[in-house]
Amino acid sequence: MTEARGRRLDQPAERGMRLPRLDADVFGKFAETFARFMGTARFILYMTVFVIVWILLNVVGIWGLHWDPYPFILLNLFFSTQASYAAPLILLAQNRQADRDKLSLDEDRRRATAQKADTEYLAREIASLRIALGEVATRDFIRSELAKLLEEQRK
Predict the structure, then answer these.
(1) Is 14 helix (H, G, I), strand (E, B) or coil?
(2) What's the number of domains the chain is made of?
(3) In angstroms, rounded to a whole number, what is the distance separating the alpha carbons of residues 46 and 72?
(4) How distant, in Å, are the alpha carbons of 32, 34, 86, 116, 132 from that of 42?
(5) What does the mean pLDDT of the chain come to?
(6) What is the rounded distance in angstroms from the CA atom of residue 63 to the CA atom of residue 113?
(7) d(CA 122, CA 101)
(8) Domain that holds residue 33
(9) Which DSSP category does 72 fall into?
(10) What pLDDT, on a 0 to 100 scale, did the predictor assign at position 111?
(11) Does 2 fall in a domain?
(12) What pTM was estimated for this model as a whole?
């Protein structure tokens, strides 16, 4: 039995390149932060300034910079790359939010069911107390009965 180079013979060998494992929660939080930032006026302002500077540098050629002539193919490639990364990140953030909303809705339903059961229990208890009080002699009833007895004895 040979275990050369630390391999175990009772398990299949792993083939191919091993990718690093990403913590899904950390990556999800990053996606939510990114999606939240992309939905702000600050992001639109930054992108507008970036595009204006890019176009000015390439059209006017300030400081001898002129790396992306008029059709701005490199700028379009930049936007395409940004969109190809932004869309999945935004979808991931939306999926995480939908999962949180589902958990919150399930918890709300559970609480509403428990509150309904508590309310029905209290309503039954109040009804039974009213019935029990209906059978209990009240002070006025006892006084009226005593008054009748006294009147009968005087006759």
Answers:
(1) coil
(2) 1
(3) 19
(4) 16, 13, 16, 46, 68
(5) 86
(6) 70
(7) 31
(8) 22-147
(9) -
(10) 97
(11) no
(12) 0.57
State how far the Cα of 53 lies from the Cα of 59, in Å rounded to an integer.
10
Q: 66 CB contacts (<8 Å, ≥6 apart)?
A: 57, 58
Q: With contact defined as beta carbons under 8 Å apart, do 30 and 24 qualify?
A: no
Domain assignment present for residue 127? The answer is yes
Q: Locate 153 and state its tokens.
A: 């004895």
Q: Which two tokens stand for residue 59?
A: 């059209």
Sequence-ordered alpha helix ranges (H) in the chain = 24-38, 41-60, 73-135, 139-154
| Residue 121 belongs to a domain | yes
Residue 15 placed within a domain:
no
pLDDT in tens, 21-56: 778 888 889 889 988 898 899 999 999 999 998 888
Which three-class secondary structure state does DSSP give residue 70?
coil
Is the separation of the CB atoms in 67 and 74 below 8 Å? yes
Cα dihedral 105/108/113/118 (nearest 10): 180
Neighbours of 68 (CB within 10 A): 18
What token pair was written down for 90? 């935004």
Q: Is 3 helix (H, G, I), strand (E, B) or coil?
A: coil
